[in-house]
Amino acid sequence: MTEFQDRVKPLLTGVPGWLTDEEGEALYELAKRCTGRGAIVEIGSWKGKSTICLGLGSRAGNGVRIVAIDPHTDYRFGDFKANVERAGIADLVTPVPSLSQDAANGFGEPIELLFVDGSHEEGDVRADFDQWVPKVVDGGWVAFHDTTWTVGPRRVVGERIYRSRRFKDIRFVVGSTTVARKVAQNSLADRLRARYVLALKTAFWLGSSMLKKQRRLLPKSLERIGRRVLRALQ
Ligand SMILES: C[S@@+](CC[C@H](N)C(=O)[O-])C[C@H]1O[C@@H](n2cnc3c(N)ncnc32)[C@H](O)[C@@H]1O
Question: Domains of the chain by range and CATH?
Answer without folding.
Answer: 3-232 (3.40.50.150)
